[in-house]
Amino acid sequence: MTLLTVWDETDETTPVLQTRDAALIGDTLSPLGVRFSRWELKELSATPTQDEVLAAYRTEIDAVNAAQGYTLVDVVSIAPSDDPAYAELAATARQKFLSEHQHDDDEDRFFARGSGVFYLRVEGKVYAVFCEAGDVISVPENTTHWFDMGTRPEYVSVRFFHDDDGWVGNFTGSDIATKFATYDELAAVPA
Ligand SMILES: [Fe+2]
């Protein structure tokens, strides 16, 4: 189940809100310009190709593209394995967007499988959205945020873009991301 945790940015020890209520999550994120919704999950093979994922969710993806004007869609995925190459890939992938940054474009994601945490810092608060399979979330352009996929990442995720270069990360240089509960810690919160 999706988990939203909200803190004051100056106090990472005590959340001001923590909920798994989808309606409350949507209502809390909506004023930030964040679109949050859920899609019904479709059957996918064990290691789905990009074309398979895009075909399975064609109707939903077309609707998002029509509503938001996206012109590019792709699928990124990582699957846990005991292969040492996975450990290296996982660490590199996790580190890439673990520091606070923003983009000139919206960052929309659908999780077809697995999970990940988007942390948004807006007006003195930090909003951590622990997304699970079925979740669709948008981080508005220029919103400072970071993303944690955890130490054993697993996801199949659809990404939406307006153009080729809108999704370059502009890093803020803040170390705020190191202070708040990680993916692994939030994954351990009782259901
Ligand atoms: Fe980002």
Automatic annotation (TrEMBL):
Feature type site, description Important to generate the dianion: 109
Cofactor: record remark: Binds 1 Fe(2+) cation per monomer.
Pathway the protein contributes to: Amino-acid biosynthesis; L-methionine biosynthesis via salvage pathway; L-methionine from S-methyl-5-thio-alpha-D-ribose 1-phosphate: step 5/6
Annotated site residue numbers, May play a role in metal incorporation in vivo: 100
UniProt: Fe(2+) binding residues: 101, 103, 107, 145
InterPro entries per UniProt: ARD, ARD_bac, RmlC-like_jellyroll, RmlC_Cupin_sf
Binding-site residues, Ni(2+): 101, 103, 107, 145
Keywords of this entry: Amino-acid biosynthesis, Dioxygenase, Iron, Metal-binding, Methionine biosynthesis, Nickel, Oxidoreductase
One GO MF term attached to the UniProt entry: acireductone dioxygenase (Ni2+-requiring) activity
EC number: 1.13.11.54, 1.13.11.53
Site (May play a role in transmitting local conformational changes): 106
Cofactors required: Fe(2+); Ni(2+)
Cross-referenced Gene3D superfamilies: Jelly Rolls
SUPFAM superfamilies in UniProt: RmlC-like cupins
Pfam families cross-referenced by the UniProt entry: ARD
Reaction it catalyzes: 1,2-dihydroxy-5-(methylsulfanyl)pent-1-en-3-one + O2 = 3-(methylsulfanyl)propanoate + CO + formate + 2 H(+); 1,2-dihydroxy-5-(methylsulfanyl)pent-1-en-3-one + O2 = 4-methylsulfanyl-2-oxobutanoate + formate + 2 H(+)
Assembly: Monomer.
Functional description taken from the UniProt entry: Catalyzes 2 different reactions between oxygene and the acireductone 1,2-dihydroxy-3-keto-5-methylthiopentene (DHK-MTPene) depending upon the metal bound in the active site. Fe-containing acireductone dioxygenase (Fe-ARD) produces formate and 2-keto-4-methylthiobutyrate (KMTB), the alpha-ketoacid precursor of methionine in the methionine recycle pathway. Ni-containing acireductone dioxygenase (Ni-ARD) produces methylthiopropionate, carbon monoxide and formate, and does not lie on the methionine recycle pathway.
Entry's family note: Belongs to the acireductone dioxygenase (ARD) family.
Protein's recorded name: Acireductone dioxygenase
Species the sequence originates in: Conyzicola nivalis
Taxonomic classification: Bacteria, Bacillati, Actinomycetota, Actinomycetes, Micrococcales
